[in-house]
Amino acid sequence: MQVTMIDERTYAQTMTDMVVPALEQCRTEGWFAPATAERAAGLEPLVGDVIGDSGSHPGQLHYLCYDAAKFDAIREEGATATFRGAVVISHGFTEFAEKYDELVWYFLLAGYSVCVLDHRGHGKSARNVENRCMVWIDDWRRYVVDLAAFAQTIGQQYAAGMPLNLFCHSMGGGIGAAVLEQYPTLFDKAVLSAPMIAPATGMPLGVARVLVGVLCKLGFSHKRVFGQGDFTPEFSMKGNEGASEARERWYFKLRCENPEYQTYCAAFEWVRQALKLNRAILSPSACSEVETPILLFQSGRDIWVLNKPQNRFVELVKDGGGEATIVRFPESRHEIFSMPNSTFRPYLEQILKFYDDPMIASASY
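RESULT FIELD:
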């Protein structure tokens, strides 16, 4: 479908004056209790948050949902007014639900309700470390169980019998890939945007596994990874050269205004679990379980995740009888949705075409 993109020259004004107010009129904020699903999966629930909204919602996960019917009632220009189902968004490392407001806006215009879960340790969700800037997780399977349970309940509620689709980015893409393997009939279609099938560690993955494993055993599990720092309120495009500065400044503004959004570095245990997730995802037997058609977007200038494991994942899914296609943006940075409109537009149009077209799963781009 034809998409009218937000003009980057007036980006902040448009977000402030039009997009955010419209989203607020159709948004529901909620808290999801994952304990029952985690126990069923053999995981002991984590409670007793160190920071976050532990007083009112101990151990719970924060989410934002956007109702397509309420959005259509606003009568925004460009809205299809045709309900197509729901999209569950699985965000990336150190991100938060509100960062996806622009993408949510486009999904709503296209007729989709949207549900965004703050993964554990992110945004306003429960976390178990003292440093609000650091992300820690004890077991990668917790991410997977939580996302699946959220989609099975809140996501299906918003889909209302129509297709339930998945959009995930980076770390959220690794989590999403594992969900597709373990819950093969949960989603109708899935977009994996620069997914963390394997993180970029600066060294061979095997060496990283051994090193991080030793450090965690030596008591560094809750320590910040060497060379990483806490969030500081100083804007910079370093590492994001070529991205849309207007979008990057908007995300930065959100971080500055919300202490809960200032996650910025990894604990050693998070890295250890990311590497365990990588090994689990690329199991041929796990990949053969995937039934959901997948569209995987790859960033040619990615410095955060590795491209070759993404290729391997798609190969294994196809070898197992599944449907998976790679679309590569050679000049894009890791966050394709943070690039200028000249890149973001074709990316978004392909996502919407994939979701909308019942025959697109067997097509190539």
